[in-house]
Specification:
0% of the residues lie in helices and 53% in strands. The chain is built from no helices and eleven strands. The chain starts with a strand and ends with a strand.
């Protein structure tokens, strides 16, 4: 079964940290560009970070320097380390995988991140 499963979300105080994980099954993980997106209430889904099969990374300006995306191809897992969290980081975070050959995408079910005191 082809799927992505996120975990690691939760409630954290401003300035705190969380680490999200995205486990993949049913795909050749190393052939996928992996990304994290987020969607806050009343807003459109936005791209947060991406990582290529070789580890090249890109970040949206609002998280650069605070978030780190990584991947472990041996474990079929992508990660998003989030530090110095702010209330405006509150959103549902989604993992996305995009096949580098045919462009087909896969979405996870999302995990809620809430930053609040």
């Amino acid at each position: 079964q082809v799927q992505l499963v996120e975990s690691g979300g939760g409630l954290v105080q401003p300035g705190g940290s969380l680490r999200l994980s995205c486990g993949a099954s049913g795909i050749l993980f190393h052939l996928y560009l992996m990304g994290w997106y987020r969607q806050a209430p009343g807003k459109e889904r936005e791209l947060v970070a991406t990582i290529s099969r070789h580890g090249d990374t890109n970040y949206v300006d609002s998280v650069a320097g605070r978030f780190t995306i990584s991947r472990d191809n041996a474990k079929n897992t992508a990660y998003l380390q989030m530090n110095r969290l702010k209330p405006e980081d509150t959103a549902v975070y989604y993992c996305n995988g995009k096949n580098i050959f045919d462009g087909r995408g896969i979405w996870g079910q999302g995990t809620q991140v809430t930053v609040s005191s």
